[in-house]
Amino acid sequence: MANETWLPTLITKTPQEGFELAVKLSRMGVKSTQPDVEILKKLRPEYANSADGLTAASQVIALNYQTISTANGYWR
Amino acid sequence: MANETWLPTLITKTPQEGFELAVKLSRMGVKSTQPDVEILKKLRPEYANSADGLTAASQVIALNYQTISTANGYWR
Amino acid sequence: MANETWLPTLITKTPQEGFELAVKLSRMGVKSTQPDVEILKKLRPEYANSADGLTAASQVIALNYQTISTANGYWR
Amino acid sequence: MANETWLPTLITKTPQEGFELAVKLSRMGVKSTQPDVEILKKLRPEYANSADGLTAASQVIALNYQTISTANGYWR
Amino acid sequence: MANETWLPTLITKTPQEGFELAVKLSRMGVKSTQPDVEILKKLRPEYANSADGLTAASQVIALNYQTISTANGYWR
Amino acid sequence: MANETWLPTLITKTPQEGFELAVKLSRMGVKSTQPDVEILKKLRPEYANSADGLTAASQVIALNYQTISTANGYWR
């Protein structure tokens, strides 16, 4: 992860692209803790099929979207 | 999701419409993690009938409402 | 919910009225996920008699109070 | 609660008094959800003797302290 | 706690000292809810040996570090 | 930890390096609560192989990334 550029900028063209970047940051937060893609694949059903897990994922996205929205001046 | 525009702007006319947009963002955070609508329908009773699940949902909405309120200058 | 105005403004006269509005926003976050008042009544003892549930409720109120305090310039 | 003034201002003299106000706000968030003091007393051991419950309480205080610190210009 | 000064200022010399203050605030949040030091000592292994407990502790520190970083102008 | 400098600055060259610093802060939050490296190693599988644990870790990173992004003016 350290060797490839995956986050060149926080600036996006639209609010929606910003939301997609927030989703990406949330995933990279997971990946930085568990880099093994095989394990991540195995865990996916555990939260993607759990109401609590999905709400928690949405919460992390909301936090990252706060950061990205501020960075972009709220696309005003 | 990437192909259709569902978030053209964070600007709303009133504080209440802003709250409704926060609810929408919270749902899209869930949907971006679990895009399968059938699974989402099946999971709905799991949190919509659980006090903890509803409080957690309200927390995500509160975070997204922080973003939207700032974007709108708090409708002052 | 969409048809009646329940949030005309984030501005309140005092810090305490602002706190009451934060409580209201937290409840509306729950209601927007579960609009059935009968189910909400049934769930109430589940969190109102649970230490964890009450702390979680207080957390959502704290988040909404951040928003409302900023909107009101902290009533300075 | 609505009838007595318990939060006249967010301004405090020192950072430490601000922290104490954050503790108070966190408790009022609980009380606004469960006003029955007898039930609250019964629940107290449930979180005051649980590591998870205490960490959660500290989290709510941290959120309210963000609000109060901003209101006071960080006492600089 | 009310009688001794433990938080005279939010200002620190370095980002790292600010982090240490955030750790302290997080602990004082716990202590304000459970002042009995003997009980706190007994609970310590409960979260210091639990992955979830440690992540939750780190989250409270992160929230308090947001406050302290802002107070210090990010030590720029 | 108090004796060595591990956080000289919040400033990073790029958004991605800032994210890596947010990961580091999140780990130091854990370490400040449980400094015993052997115990931390034993606990690692507990959260690195749990969907909930990984989402919680990503949430702490998101909070710390808010701090670091602000410190860096969002690298604009």
Q: What general form of chain A does the structure show?
A: flat
N- to C-terminal distance of chain A: 33 Å
* Unreliable segments of 5+ consecutive residues of chain A: none
The two chains with the largest interface, and their residue counts, are:
A-B, 28 and 35 residues
Key phrases:
homohexamer; 76 residues; mainly alpha; flat
Describe this structure in words.
The structure is a homohexamer of 76-residue chains. The first copy, chain A, has 76 residues and is mostly helical. Chain A is flat, with a radius of gyration of 14 Å. In chain A, helix 1 packs across helix 3. Chain A has helices at residues 15-33, 37-48, 51-71. The mean pLDDT of chain A is 95. Chain A contains 3 helices and no strands. The first copy, chain A, has one domain. Chains in contact: A-B, A-F, B-C, C-D, D-E, E-F.
Structure at a glance:
The first copy, chain A, is an all-alpha fold and 76 residues long. The first copy, chain A, has helices at residues 15-33, 37-48, 51-71. The mean pLDDT of chain A is 95.
